[in-house]
Write a structure and sequence with these properties.
The relative contact order is 0.06. The protein folds into three domains: 157 residues, Orthogonal Bundle (Globin-like); 101 residues, no CATH class; 86 residues, Arc Repressor Mutant, subunit A (Orthogonal Bundle), CATH 1.10.10. Helix 6 packs antiparallel against helix 7 and helix 15 crosses helix 16. A hairpin with a 2-residue loop joins strand 2 and strand 3. Strands 1, 2, 3, 4, 5 and 6 form a six-stranded mixed sheet that branches. The protein has 17 helices and six strands. By secondary structure, the protein is of the alpha+beta class.
């Protein structure tokens, strides 16, 4: 908004002082005329001037009329106070759930009524038509400026509310996925602040990017989201409801994402951690497709949960093979892996490896020399199986 009415209409500098004084004399009836017009406009919108916003708008009308008639008489008067009133009215419009266009419509109607009133009360000795045109230019520019101040207030409040919502959602999600389950009272208070009914079950999605609000709106179904560390974390309530996960997958089409399992609300951290680790492995190219479904890759996640641990496991468990030439080491590792998978069925292992059963038997004799009693211990066989799966999966 301009600082003065003179900035809006420079022609005011040429008006005779009598024009401004005449307008000041019309102040009281002008108040009543414009207030009645605004009341009618508010009623048409299903509102009244009796509530908090109504009283504020009444004050705004009086302030706007007073500021205008005074500024016509003194065009260099500062309009900052009037601007502040309408900026606050715009903020209140947003808080009370109205559209900013509704306030703009009231202001436009009020401006027209002021002009109609001034024309109706012009006397033969009053302002010349040229002077009235200058006043009209000032008036309608002034109304536009007030509407602009209200719109700025509306947008400021909208941005502040968005920041507040983002903060409350982030606090709620952080509580849900923290290492220690939150106290029930704290969780309910955070959920109430976020206006999010606590569901019995949730699933957490981790998605590359930072557009948390957009994703939560697109997925719908009460999903809430925030950015934690390097990804958007989306909490999806009641994920097992028909169609809910399908809609989430559709919303994430083309995005690098991972879905944690459906869990009870109190175990949200597990779903969060699984989806986060799955996303990290998807980034590394270990897991395929988007979105990655964590439950379909639990063994890979288990082996790779702690970076370097699976490598250490493979090095330690497969140490007996370390001294062999690469080709022999690979052949024996593949044979042992097949033997463990097929529970010792030599013919089936040979078919899997496209080799002769006698070759498999020969290699197994060699492996028994290297691993000894480990091949007869169920626990050691399990560890060997995991180590071989990890090592052979990497092509080593």
């Amino acid at each position: 908004m301009a600082d003065t009415l003179l900035d809006i209409e420079p022609g005011l500098a040429r008006l005779a002082p009598a024009v401004g004084e005449q307008l000041r004399g019309l102040r009281a009836p002008l108040h009543e005329r414009i207030l009645e017009t605004v009341r009618a406009a508010m009623r048409a919108q299903g509102r009244s001037l009796t509530g908090g916003q109504g009283r504020g708008l009444s004050l705004g009308v009086r302030t706007a009329v007073d500021a205008f008639v005074d500024a016509v008489a003194e065009p260099a008067r500062d309009l900052a106070a009037t601007r502040a009133v309408f900026h606050e009215l715009g903020r209140t419009e947003y808080r009370e759930g109205h559209r900013v266009d509704a306030l703009r419509a009231v202001l436009t109607l009020g401006g027209r009524e002021i002009w109609a009133f001034l024309v109706a009360h012009t006397t033969p000795a009053g302002p010349a038509p040229a002077d009235l045109y200058v006043v009209a230019g000032a008036l309608f520019g002034y109304v536009d400026a007030l509407a602009g101040a209200a719109a700025e207030g509306y947008l400021d409040e909208q941005r502040a509310a968005a920041r507040d919502w983002a903060t409350t959602r982030r606090r709620l999600i952080t509580l849900l996925v923290q290492p220690q389950p939150p106290a029930e009272a704290a969780l309910r208070a955070a959920a109430d602040a976020a206006r999010w009914p606590l569901p019995p079950t949730v699933a957490v999605l981790s998605v590359d990017g930072d557009d948390a609000d957009h994703l939560s709106r697109t997925i719908g179904g009460g999903a809430i989201a925030t950015v934690i560390d390097d990804a958007v974390r989306i909490v999806l309530p009641d994920p097992d409801l028909p169609g809910r996960l399908d809609r989430a997958r559709q919303a994430l089409a083309g995005r690098r994402a991972a879905l944690g399992p459906s869990v009870a609300l109190g175990r949200a951290r597990l779903s969060y951690r699984i989806s986060g680790r799955a996303l990290a492995l998807r980034r590394d190219g270990v897991l395929p497709a988007d979105p990655v479904v964590g439950d379909e890759h639990l063994l890979t996640l288990l082996l790779r949960w702690e970076p370097g641990l699976a490598d250490h496991l493979a090095d330690a468990c497969l140490a007996p093979l370390a001294g062999l030439r690469p080709a022999a080491r690979r052949a024996l590792a593949e044979t042992l892996h097949g033997w463990l998978r097929r529970q010792g069925q030599v013919v089936a292992v040979a078919e899997d490896l496209h080799t002769h059963p006698q070759t498999v038997r020969y290699r197994m004799r060699r492996l028994r020399e290297l691993f000894g009693a480990d091949l007869d211990d169920p626990d050691r066989r399990l560890v060997l199986h995991l180590a071989l799966r990890h090592r052979l999966g990497e092509g080593r």
